[in-house]
Amino acid sequence: MKIAVISSAEISMSNKIITLVQEIVLFLSKIPNIKIITGGCLGVPGLLVKKAKQLEINTIAYSPDRDGDKHNKRSDNLALCYFNEIKHFSGLTARSLAMIKDADCILMLNGRIGTLSEFTIALEEGKRIGIITNTGGVSDHAQYILKVAKKEFPNQTFFSSKPKEVINWLISQSE
């Protein structure tokens, strides 16, 4: 199962978010054949990938840069040595679309404009999206965004402040 984690690349994180990320990785480590996909950035996805590497979980970077040299020169990217597999794209939009299409499901928490963009791409691509609420950022506004969008996405999203509930829902929808 490939799970794309969409979240903020912001490097300053609260202790609550750091603890939450650790809880998420420990729970994901119990899922057989799990692969974690991120956009190769720092912040929450970067911390999650670093913890995943410690637990020997396979990770895939979808870099918005055309090669490893460009990727490693960007200040908001995680070093590629943390990933088992790397895919390069030219630009954030191409990267995000490929990442979402390749994922079996999406796990979303906190986030900024990039997370919002990936959320809407995932909706339009018909992906199942588990949103961990009370984490700040756009995740706490996703239900409102769906309401004002005035478009139905039945059985495609699940909201909870409990990471295990969200991940269990994603697993149950992927079986």
Topology:
Elements: E1 2-6, H1 15-28, E2 35-38, H2 43-54, E3 58-63, H3 68-73, E4 85-88, H4 92-102, E5 105-109, H5 113-124, E6 128-132, H6 142-149, E7 157-160, H7 163-174
Parallel strand pairs: 1-2, 1-5, 2-3, 3-4, 5-6, 6-7
Helix pairs in contact: 1-2, 4-5
Overview features:
175 residues; alpha/beta; Rossmann fold; 7 strands
Question: How would you characterize this protein structure?
Answer:
- The chain is α/β, with parallel strands linked by helices.
- The chain has one domain (2-174): Rossmann fold.
- The chain has 7 helices and 7 strands, in the order E-H-E-H-E-H-E-H-E-H-E-H-E-H.
- It has helices spanning 15-28, 43-54, 68-73, 92-102, 113-124, 142-149, 163-174, and strands spanning 2-6, 35-38, 58-63, 85-88, 105-109, 128-132, 157-160.
- It has a 7-stranded parallel beta sheet, sandwiched between helices.
- It is globular, with a radius of gyration of 15 Å.
The helix-strand sequence is EHEHEHEHEHEHEH
Strands side by side in the biggest sheet: 4-3-2-1-5-6-7
Rounded mean pLDDT score = 95
CATH architecture annotation name: 3-Layer(aba) Sandwich
Compact description:
The protein has helices at 15-28, 43-54, 68-73, 92-102, 113-124, 142-149, 163-174, and strands at 2-6, 35-38, 58-63, 85-88, 105-109, 128-132, 157-160. The protein has one domain: Rossmann fold (3-Layer(aba) Sandwich).
